């Protein structure tokens, strides 16, 4: 009889390297399955994660004490052996001034660094508390979330640097606001001209940095709070629910802009099947392209079809051919794409390449629907209409 396989919860959460996530032995019993793990309270889930042997002991301690040279949470000047505290993410005030002066004189930063001298900290300056961050004033869940987020950020493909002084300022504001969980915080930007400036200010210090920091923390903690099935209902898909991260992406794939339930669910299911496959991609490009294909179709249906294409059974071959004609015209005339935007907020311009990528992605989506048996009888005509 085959021995029962116990799957550690950490196999299905936010870790990058399986070498780092060997099942914990230091604390027993460890929850043996993801289903059992998700039945725990949110606080208990984070306690399980921070109890594993690979979790750094200094992040469990109270207070947390960071080394001044820590790659992600250090606070000393980046010049080797310099004892002064960094005024920015990189250099102390003295070295930042020197580097700016060198830059004005045409000296590249690497060349200047070779000759920069380390500076000693004045005897009268006490820096002993600079790397200390205390979470005792926070509710247990918020404190546990931050500890886990600190670890997840440090081990992510693209970690961000969070100086202890900014962490302390953020924590003080969280205490003042009586925040029970960092998932409560809304970090979305308000449109300009709405509300007084003082009312838009969320943080007493380092406002933009704190917003960015909380957004990253939320991205790490969300999969611990939400199951795969729940994320499907909420309209996003996160590879962290499959126990891995993509090399070039921290955030989940947001499918909420796909307004038709059937199309959003179909897109989620296709990406999930890719995550389940042994040949899943290591980068986001092909997956993001699938998302953009569905967004383009969704926007067209909203614009051109009665009731916005909410009922897939009402879509016909004529609908598909009209969509193809619309994409072809936009590509030929370099017109803006419906629903697709660049990073700067400008509408994406249609090209022959973008048209081809959209058609290829949608053919893949429709064939997946046919192969899995969820397709409407009219769907084969869609696949034929999208043929080159």
Please summarize what this structure is.
It contains 15 helices and 6 strands. With 388 residues, it is mainly α.
List keywords for this structure.
388 residues, mainly alpha, two-stranded antiparallel sheet, two-stranded antiparallel ribbon, 15 helices
Describe the 3D structure.
This protein is mainly α and 388 residues long. The protein has three domains: 9-67 and 131-225, no CATH class; 76-125, no CATH class; 228-385, no CATH class. The protein is 46% helix and 4% strand. The chain contains 15 helices and six strands. The strands form three sheets. The chain has a two-stranded antiparallel sheet. Strand 5 (336-341) and strand 6 (347-349) form a beta hairpin. Helix 6 (140-154) crosses helix 9 (207-225) and helix 11 runs antiparallel to helix 12 (285-304). The N and C termini lie far apart (52 Å). Mean pLDDT is 81; it is low at 1-32 and 193-199.
């Amino acid at each position: 009889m085959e021995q029962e396989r116990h799957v550690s919860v950490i196999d299905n959460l936010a870790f990058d390297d399986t070498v780092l996530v060997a099942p914990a032995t230091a604390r027993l019993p460890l929850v043996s399955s993801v289903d059992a793990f998700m039945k725990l309270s949110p606080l208990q889930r984070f306690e399980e994660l921070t109890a594993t042997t690979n979790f750094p002991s200094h992040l469990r301690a109270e207070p947390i004490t960071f080394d001044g040279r820590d790659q992600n949470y250090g606070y000393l000047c980046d010049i080797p052996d310099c004892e002064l505290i960094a005024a920015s993410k990189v250099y102390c005030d003295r070295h930042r001034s020197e580097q700016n002066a060198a830059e004005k004189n045409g000296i590249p930063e690497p060349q200047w660094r070779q000759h920069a001298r380390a500076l000693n900290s004045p005897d009268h300056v006490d820096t002993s508390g600079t790397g200390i961050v205390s979470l005792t004033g926070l509710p247990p869940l918020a404190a546990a979330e931050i500890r886990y987020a600190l670890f997840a950020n440090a081990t992510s493909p693209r970690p961000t640097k969070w100086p202890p002084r900014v962490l302390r300022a953020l924590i003080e504001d969280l205490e003042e606001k009586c925040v029970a969980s960092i998932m409560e915080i809304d970090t979305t930007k308000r449109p300009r001209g709405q509300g007084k400036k003082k009312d838009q200010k969320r943080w007493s210090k380092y406002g933009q940095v704190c917003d960015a920091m909380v957004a990253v923390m939320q991205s790490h903690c969300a999969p611990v709070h939400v199951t795969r099935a729940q994320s499907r209902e909420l309209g996003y898909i996160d590879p962290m629910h499959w126990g891995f991260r993509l090399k070039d992406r921290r955030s989940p794939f947001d499918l909420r802009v796909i307004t038709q339930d059937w199309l959003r669910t179909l897109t989620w299911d296709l990406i999930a099947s890719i995550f389940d496959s042994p040949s899943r991609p290591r980068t986001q490009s092909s997956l993001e392209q699938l998302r953009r294909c569905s967004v383009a179709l969704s926007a067209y249906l909203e614009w051109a079809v009665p009731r916005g294409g909410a009922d897939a059974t009402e879509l016909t071959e004529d609908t598909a051919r009209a969509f193809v004609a619309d994409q072809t015209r936009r590509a030929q005339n370099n017109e803006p794409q419906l629903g697709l935007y660049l990073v700067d907020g400008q509408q994406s311009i249609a090209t022959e390449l973008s048209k081809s990528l959209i058609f290829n992605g949608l053919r893949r989506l429709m064939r997946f629907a046919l192969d899995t048996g969820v397709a409407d009888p009219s769907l084969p005509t869609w696949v034929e209409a999208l043929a080159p």
